[in-house]
Amino acid sequence: MSRLENCFNELQSTGQKALVPFVTAGDPSGAFTLSCMHSMVKAGANIIELGVPFSDPMADGPVIQRASERALDAGMTLVGVLDIVKSFRKTDQQTPVVLMGYLNPIEFMGYETFAKEAEKAGVDGVLTVDIPPEESEGLNQAYKKHGIAPIFLLSPTSTVERIKKVANVAEGYIYYVSLKGVTGAANLELSEINDKVSIIKQHTNIPVAIGFGVKTADIASDIAKIGDAVVVGSALINCITDHDDTSKAEQAVFDLLNSMRLAMDANATK
Asked: Which of 46, 103, 110, 212 is least crowded, fewest Cβ atoms below 10 Å from its Cβ?
């Protein structure tokens, strides 16, 4: 059984939901990212999403775009991201790590080479933002050969036909984008999210993670009542950029995540 499956099974047994922080690898440095990953686990994170910096992150809002720019300026590469995961695995063999990024760096490395190196590093899943399910067969074959879950996005505008296509190929979890637009937007409509997630769950048995617009402990608590996992990204990157001192930035990330963990656990029903 994979780390992702174990994680969701253990949480289900306690009535908890997964807390999934996203940070951009290499922002502001690889050493900070590695240290922050361990802090996030201590704060209550169950799965970590690492953004692979890319020069044209078209699906991301300005907060994550700037994080990618900073990481690239600092010299972060796809190989560097895998090295961070490899270092993380030296002391944490349990927490699932999912890479989130764009197809171009993976194509440049080669599907098979990337999947092989990701497996060696200890990556559990990859969400490739700009590859649709109908074009993903070759990439998915490489992932499955190396035990890596192909993770896909769905959105408020996804049709039932699209939901079925994603459900047929997705593993690990499905990431439901709770807002129309780019990352870091606002104005969550909980009833609409609930309706859409209910439709998605009619077509798949794998967990549904909900992200975009999760900024506070109260929002995380509300989202946890609907989905199987809560993803928080832009709010954490703001914690990092609000502090020049990296130790204070890491503490701010810890504090926000821990407040979300406590709020989400208040909903837990054993």
From this structure: 110
Q: What residues act catalytically? A: 49, 60
| 3-state SS class at 80 | helix
DSSP assigned state of 47: S
Instruction: Name the H helices within the chain.
Output: 3-14, 30-43, 62-73, 78-88, 103-109, 111-121, 137-145, 160-169, 190-201, 217-224, 234-241, 246-265
49: which 2 tokens?
Answer: 């999403």
pTM: 0.94
CB within 8 A of 147, min separation 6: which ones?
2, 119
The one-digit pLDDT tens for each residue of the chain (270 residues) are 899 999 999 999 999 999 999 999 999 999 999 999 999 999 999 999 999 998 876 666 778 888 889 999 999 999 999 999 999 999 999 999 999 999 999 999 999 999 999 999 999 999 999 999 999 999 999 999 999 999 999 999 999 999 999 999 999 999 999 875 444 445 578 899 999 999 999 999 999 999 988 999 999 999 999 999 999 999 999 999 999 899 999 999 999 999 999 999 997 765
